[in-house]
Amino acid sequence: MPLYRRRSPKNSCVATLSVLVFVTFFTGMVYLTSTRWRHYISTPEYATWGDRASTAVTHTINDHIYFSSFDGQSVYTNRGMTGGCNKRAPHSLEYEMLRKVRLEVIMFLATKGGNFYTKDNCRHIRYRDVPGVGVEVDVVCRRPELTLAERVTVLYPLQASLVTLHTQVATTERINIIMPLKGRPEIFKLFLNNLQKVIASGNVKVGLTVVCFFDKYTEDNRLAFLEAAKNMTDLQTHFIELPQQSFSRSKALNVGVEQSEIEGEVVFLCDVDVLFTSDFLLRCLTMPVQNHQVFFPIVFSQYNPELVFSLFGKKVPPPLDTLFIDDHSGFWRLWGHGMVCLYKSDFLKISGLNSARNGWGGEDLKFLEKTSKMKYYKIIRSLDYGLFHIYHPKDCKDVGQGMMWSCKSLQAMSEASNVDFGLWFFRKGYNSSLWGILKTEEEWERKVSDEWDRKVDVEWERNAADEQEREVDGKLEEVQEEDIIPAPSRAQPNLNTHLCSVT
Q1: Of 124, 157, 190, which one is at a domain's C-terminal end?
Q2: Does residue 132 lie within any of the structural domains?
Q3: Which of 129, 122, 117, 123 is nearest to 155 (CA)?
Q4: pTM of the predicted model, to two decimals?
């Protein structure tokens, strides 16, 4: 008689169903009675460790997508901070999502095991965006009187893609750059040199409207402007001179947009110390949508090159060769809203900036707020890798009312990164050597090797000096035994030996 008898398909289905019922019942019993941490995924077909979010993310240090955390009040995020701190309040849409997922988890646990939680019991939340998958949210709930904690992971999958906008922009359209100016002739010449390089690429057509406040440098700036216009034949220009008065960035931009004679519907509100690439101007041309969208690009602000490059033992390159982005060269000016690309008609519809505001600082934020209150405008804010704020010593004497603290803070932040500031402090404050930290590995090894060779040479010279001293002492003893000369006094130094010992 065979030890194993093949079952019929009908019997196999019944047996399989019985096992599933038993496993389900056993799992439910474990859920109700266990006091350990348990792992559930709300969608049954993904109730394994190999869920979509987990398998989509590479769990390596450099490629891992980290979670942000929410404690019920503040968000602790691994991304750049718009508030300049390590935590922030959640955005309104973000808070609404967290509120809904917490309520969903509370209802799930109430129906699953009969444990009822409040929102305060479930305030430990982590979440992350997984590209191509969705938003993964992890919630931990615990009631103080219970000896268990429950954790639920919820995945909000992405929906099918939907095209929401399609526009066509003629690249033959001209961008009109509106720039306020007072003094600063050297920076203005640098701006014009970069503009000449951009126009030579032939990527977009450009116009330049300069609104200049009269001062002792006005004639120098005018001559530089005329020379640039002569060298860049495809550049349309308009130089507007205002009588001597206090500088007002708001007034200059309003005058430039309203009075410019340059053909071009898209205007770029720019400052003299901001350089850009031709690719940025293409984005500046295509991002605004008339009557619908305004583009506020985020500028990459350079650190003090004299400080940063000297720390690395490098020569400071020319300014136009420093337009690159890394952790040591600068930072994203997340709170700055002064660079704007929009249609001239939209600028006028928004009523421009507040011309009564003197100096600079704060007028950009007011313009952004005014734009956002007009409900039919969508604001585009993004980091732009083709827009650079050139470092210069910051002067806070012309800042607007109530902006001194912001100016001083920016003045400090513009010098160097936290790491480079710390390294500079150690070198200047403690006279510490930084070559092992700031040089490359090859230079480090070479330095260590040279240091070792030097120590070996010194040690060899010392040993040779000691050997020579022993030989001299031996000869003196031989001479003393023959009573030819007296022994040297202990108070008299042996000059030859002394010199050898310090060689």
Answers
A1: 157
A2: yes
A3: 129
A4: 0.69
